[in-house]
């Protein structure tokens, strides 16, 4: 309870900065994905590259840097099963399946219901206060995500199964902040991140079907650097940063701050890929930034 009480105070600037940095690194994932898909990889292949590659990198680094992260109690493995399999892997399975059944905009906005789930679960589990400021931030970021993802443009496809899968993606995505909070009560953020990928890596091989594209990519050395960038910059580093921030910030607030991700994704598309800027996109970016700003 004492730890929870500390988190309810004004969030430390450094912790918020770590979460925002993580969101920014997640936001540029599309740049890596575009190049990998152009090389023949499918979205599910990329999930395997991210999770299994992240596991290999973290294992190699900490085997040299600090082997103490590998020592955890057996009774706590359930938390890492939660962060690694239930959250990281299952949310991607639901998300990519939703993209097949619904428009990409619909899938994206359903994924960003995650902060709402985190705020609700945190209030139920740890009595985190649901303040007017937090509700306003939720409303602003959810509206902003909808505008940035293109819901206002129309022409989107919705199915009942797709909605359920999209909400499932948002729910499983949210559970990282929930299981992560339990794990952080016993271990530091680096240990939590390492064990998340020790579970997510092998589970990806089992639960996410690969394709010929993944095997063909192995013979393309020019894709190796792109895959390394994806693993280092948009997988391992943001999870380390987000988990470090989560250890010092309320789960609900952390999840809302991470809603900066679609803003960075939109800006990356505009600045790097030359995608057009619509009034709805600009308004959505403004809504998300306002929602993030009022939480400080």
Write the layout of secondary structure elements.
Layout: H1 2-7, H2 13-27, H3 29-38, H4 43-65, H5 77-101, H6 104-111, H7 114-126, H8 132-148, H9 160-184, H10 189-207, H11 212-217, H12 221-246, H13 251-257, H14 261-271, H15 279-293
Helix pairs in contact: 2-12, 2-14, 3-12, 4-5, 4-10, 4-12, 5-6, 5-9, 5-10, 6-9, 7-9, 7-13, 8-15, 9-13, 10-12
Task: Give a quick set of tags describing it.
296 residues; mainly alpha; globular; disordered N terminus
Summary of the model, kept short:
With 296 residues, this protein is mainly alpha-helical. The protein is 76% helix and 0% strand.
Please give a structural write-up.
By secondary structure, the protein is mainly α. The chain has one domain. The protein has helices at residues 2-7, 13-27, 29-38, 43-65, 77-101, 104-111, 114-126, 132-148, 160-184, 189-207, 212-217, 221-246, 251-257, 261-271, 279-293. Helix 5 runs antiparallel to helix 9, helix 7 (114-126) runs antiparallel to helix 13 (251-257) and helix 8 runs antiparallel to helix 15 (279-293). The longest helix is centred in the last third of the chain and has 26 residues, at 221-246. It is globular, with a radius of gyration of 18 Å. Residues 1-6 have low confidence and may be disordered.
Query: Which percent bin holds the helix content?
Result: over 70%
Q: State the domain count.
A: 1
Report the biggest beta sheet as strand number plus sense, adding barrel if it closes: none
Note the gap between the termini: 23 Å
What's the overall geometry? Answer: globular
Count of helices? 15
* Average residue-wise pLDDT: 89
Order of helices and strands: HHHHHHHHHHHHHHH
Bin the strand percentage: under 5%
Uncertain regions spanning at least 5 consecutive residues: 1-6
Structural class designation: mainly alpha
Tell me the number of strands.
0
Global Rg: 18 Å
